[in-house]
Amino acid sequence: MASRFIIAVLGLFFAFPSVNLHAGSIPSVRVPKLGSAAAVVKDQRTGEFLLSKQAETAMPIASITKLMTAMVVLDAKLDMDAPITIREEDKDMLRNSSSHLPVGTRLTRHEALLIALMASENRAAHALGRTYPGGIRAAVHAMNEKAKLLGLSETRFDDPTGLSDGNVSSAHDLSRLVEAACHYPLICNFTTTAEVTLELGHKRLHFHNTNALVRNPRWQIGLSKTGYIEEGGRCLVMQTLLAQRPILIVLLNSTGKNTRLADANRIKTWMEASFAPQHRAKSQ
Fold first, then answer.
1. Which of 21, 94, 187, 197 has the lowest CB atom count within 10 Å?
2. What's the Cα-to-Cα distance from 92 to each of 84, 85, 122, 175, rounded to whole Å?
3. Do the strands 195-200 and 203-208 form a parallel or antiparallel pair, or are they unpaired?
4. Which domains does the chain possess?
5. Which of 36, 42, 53, 66 is flagged as catalytic?
6. Would the pTM of this model clear 0.85, i.e. be above it?
7. Is residue 91 among the annotated active site residues?
8. Is 66 a catalytic residue?
9. Given 36, 52, 53, 63, the catalytic residue
């Protein structure tokens, strides 16, 4: 009877992904139960991982890919005022996703980067890759070389949009990618822009940020990017300030439509409960 009980307990233990908490540096506060399949919470100042869940597992990252696309475009020092025309080849033939940019739309590289990052416009991201010196293949090569340079051992890129499930990374790797992206002021600015209206030809097109948290006054967000494809679920990465600490959050493969946002809010509540008392004690 006792042996069957032990086996049952072990079965329950191994049935759920592990959540690791480095409790030596934070008070004993209950770890939030996250709905995302993989996650990390990293103190950007100390480099310490405060929470991790399936952090080394590579999985599809969807439009989080666009952060790397933006970095290599900016690294190439391309003319941001140069015009780009959306072509037939920029259409999503893999998933037939919708777009606000009809074929023939003319916009600047600056505008394409803005809506690729803020509104996750796939045609804009593909056009950025297509107009990279050497074309899409060269852009993807640069993205993979940049990943190697950053030491992202679980990260591979297959296209500049994230529509391919061949774009994979781990939560641990993405925390490093986000930290690298934080060094690009334009990426920080564009990914946290709440909304924008662009005059494109004879049309005025309005775009919203895909992360609703950037419009929430309770959050101080320095960088943000969402992603979604069926194989990778809903994803979210952010740089933010929680309990007076610069924090990197990575949430991957959330199944419900609002799970990633709920997880982010759970992490915020947990961080404030864990660290705020310490800050108050130090100030007294």
1. 197
2. 17, 16, 7, 28
3. antiparallel
4. 24-283 (3.40.710.10)
5. 66
6. yes
7. no
8. yes
9. 63
